[in-house]
Design goal:
By secondary structure, the protein is mainly alpha-helical. About 80% of the residues lie in helices and about 0% in strands. It has one domain: MFS general substrate transporter like domains (Growth Hormone, Chain: A, Up-down Bundle). Helix 3 runs antiparallel to helix 13 and helix 4 packs antiparallel against helix 5.
Length: about 425
């Protein structure tokens, strides 16, 4: 791909307010932000695995597992549009803190009930739903908050660092959670989550970041009006429409690889626990490598070119997951799948942070959260039952081929490629 920029005079729609907020101490603030997110995500990951395994061991029920997925995704889907409005209306720093504390409060209630002997599975569903609501509030707020900390010319590497941390946590969390579950009661794991949440909030409170412009204004219109303006903003920008349509199909098509590969491994290679652990570890390790790659390389100058390359590779790798018959080769492909995802996610996130008007960032990321939390479960509603009639290998081959077709469509999207270049900033506006 040729990396010349025919639109080098193009300016971002992002408001000047954004660069003004990137103060000379942005590296300190980003370090605190990353530390807080790492601590918070560690506790959350431990609890998510603990809840998943507790339900599995106590019920041995596919229905219960399906319900846990529903309670973990559906609340995010319904709250995300409102959460996006909140992220644009109010101080994003305090939204993130309040969401964390709400999740911790629900976990404390669960700890007390479990210690008193009330250990009904429905309580875990309720807590999963509360955590899902917290995620709905946090996700757009965090994505919109990062450009207030990091200058635009450093966003790609900052997002790469965040992706690397998330991948590292995905790598270690199953092992740590499993070790804890074998040594202590589940209440102790819940308590670790509460303590990490408190520590994360204390770190986050030390950030010195001015609120974005809209948060300082008196809000005179309704939530519904702001929400409608957000959808109008997306509808009026062709590159956003193209991205979101792509995301919707993408999340459906990757759902077999995301959810059904453990079942595929159990059916095709053996039901050994170490095999299931191996695919989790290799995938997470691949994502860690991909995050490091995006932190050091930064991708092509055109963000969309990186997304196109990754989209092709994701489709090809998904086909390979359905083709390979040797488990060790399967693990190598799983590493490759992990590497390619940050090459797509990081530039896509950075592109939106660079291009979307700061006043609409929360609502745009709220819609993305709604798409991801809605279309992946939708894909599972179709591919999950289908796995009892059509082999998972064929599902992976067909959906992988469709992902390659999607990559071709993305490759031909001139409007999206045109917006893929990072906005050129005046020298005076560059952060130190």
């Amino acid at each position: 791909m040729t990396e010349t920029n025919p639109h080098e005079e193009h300016r971002s729609e992002a408001t000047p307010d954004r660069m003004a907020l990137a103060n000379p101490h942005w590296k300190r603030n980003f370090g605190l932000f990353l530390s807080s997110q790492t601590v918070s995500l560690l506790g959350s990951s431990l609890v998510q695995y603990a809840i998943l395994w507790y339900i599995t061991l106590e019920t041995n029920s596919g229905l219960m597992m399906a319900l846990s997925i529903v309670f973990g995704f559906v609340p995010t889907f319904f709250l995300s549009p409102f959460a996006g409005v909140w992220a644009d209306r109010y101080n994003r720093k305090w939204l993130i803190i309040l969401a964390d504390l709400s999740i911790a409060a629900a976990t404390v209630v669960l700890i007390v009930l479990f210690l008193l002997g009330y250990k009904a599975i429905w309580m875990l569903f309720v807590v999963s739903a509360v955590r899902s609501l917290g995620t709905a509030v946090q996700s757009p707020a965090v994505s919109a908050f990062l450009p207030q900390i990091v200058p635009d010319n450093q966003l790609m590497r900052a997002n790469g660092m965040v992706a690397s941390v998330q991948s590292a946590l995905m790598l270690v969390s199953p092992m740590v959670s499993g070790a804890l579950m074998s040594l202590v009661q589940i209440e102790a794991v819940f308590m670790i989550d509460v303590l990490t949440c408190i520590l994360a909030v204390l770190i986050f409170l030390t950030l010195r970041v001015a609120p974005h412009a809209k948060a300082l204004e008196k809000q005179t219109v309704s939530y519904w009006h702001d929400m409608r303006l957000g959808f109008d903003y997306i509808r009026n920008h062709q590159y956003l429409r193209s991205m979101f349509i792509f995301f919707a199909f993408f999340f459906v098509l990757v759902s077999p690889a995301a959810f059904l590969t453990p079942l595929q491994v159990a059916r095709s290679f053996g039901e050994d626990v170490w095999r299931l652990t191996a695919i989790e570890v290799t995938f997470s390790g691949g994502m860690l490598l991909g995050g490091i790659l995006m932190t050091t390389w930064g991708g092509f100058k055109n963000r969309v070119h990186s997304m196109i390359l990754s989209a092709y590779l994701i489709g090809i790798n998904q086909i390979l997951l359905g083709v390979v018959a040797n488990f060790w080769v399967y693990l190598v492909v799983m590493v490759a799948v992990g590497i390619t995802l940050p090459i797509f996610n990081t530039p896509a996130l950075t592109l939106l942070q660079e291009k979307v008007d700061d006043a609409y960032l929360g609502r745009v990321f709220g819609v993305i959260s709604m798409i991801s939390s809605g279309f992946m479960p939708l894909g599972m509603l179709f591919f999950g039952p289908l796995a009892d009639h059509v082999s998972i290998e064929w599902q992976l081959i067909v959906t992988g081929a469709l992902l390659v077709v999607q990559a071709i469509v993305l490759h031909r999207s001139r409007s999206l490629i045109r917006e893929g270049y990072a906005p050129v900033k005046d020298n005076a506006m560059q952060a130190p």
